[in-house]
UniProtKB/TrEMBL annotation:
GO CC field: large ribosomal subunit
Database matches in PANTHER family: 54S RIBOSOMAL PROTEIN BL35M (PTHR33343), LARGE RIBOSOMAL SUBUNIT PROTEIN BL35M (PTHR33343:SF1)
GO BP terms, alphabetized: translation
Pfam families given in the database record: Ribosomal_L35p (PF01632)
SUPFAM superfamilies associated with the record: L35p-like
Annotated organism of origin: Rhodotorula toruloides
Entry keyword set: Ribonucleoprotein, Ribosomal protein
GO molecular function: structural constituent of ribosome
Family: Belongs to the bacterial ribosomal protein bL35 family.
InterPro entries referenced in this protein's UniProt entry, alphabetically: Ribosomal_bL35, Ribosomal_bL35-like, Ribosomal_bL35_CS, Ribosomal_bL35_sf
Protein's recorded name: 50S ribosomal protein L35
Gene3D superfamilies given in the database record: 4.10.410.60
Length: 160
């Protein structure tokens, strides 16, 4: 876009080439990191409005003295407090994953112990291959010992 100075419009030396200013509007869904990146940029001739808006909105975001619904100097509404809180909120604790191998082999019971299966019961447990004493012993419930329980509490954090 070419603009003429007021006064002398005949000479080409008086013509000034001005670039069109492209201002990006900040939306509520954009992260605060993007706002900080825009505010940190040095304001050039083409982006002075964007930098001014971003720095003012960051000031409004982080200063508790300014109300969140106050009008912006540029006439653009800044973020609401609930949106800012949701963008800035971090989880208090990460989600822990259950160890899938431990979950398949052990089952937590109400008193804090873990039930497990006996080995040797998958096949070949007819009368001819195993004695009745051994079959009776393998039929009873087996529990994890104390050392295994300590490990299982870490492997299955949501079981007990």
């Amino acid at each position: 876009m070419v603009r003429e100075r007021a006064g002398d419009s005949s000479s080409p030396a008086t013509l000034i080439a001005s670039t069109t200013t492209t201002t990006t509007t900040m939306l509520a869904w954009q992260p605060v990191r993007a706002l900080a990146r825009i505010a940190a940029r040095p304001p050039s001739a083409s982006s002075w409005a964007t930098a001014a808006f971003a720095s003012r909105s960051l000031t409004r975001l982080f200063s508790p003295s300014l109300p969140s619904n106050a009008a912006s100097p540029l006439g653009v509404r800044t973020f609401a407090a609930s949106t800012v809180a949701s963008l800035m909120r971090k989880p208090t604790r990460i989600k822990l994953k259950t160890h899938s191998g431990a979950a398949k082999r052990f089952k937590a019971i109400a008193n804090g112990m873990y039930k497990r299966a006996h080995s040797g019961k998958a096949h070949l447990n007819s009368n001819a291959s195993m004695s009745s004493t051994r079959l009776n012993r393998l039929g009873k419930t087996a529990y994890a010992n104390t050392a295994e329980r300590r490990k299982l509490r870490k492997l299955m954090p949501y079981s007990c």
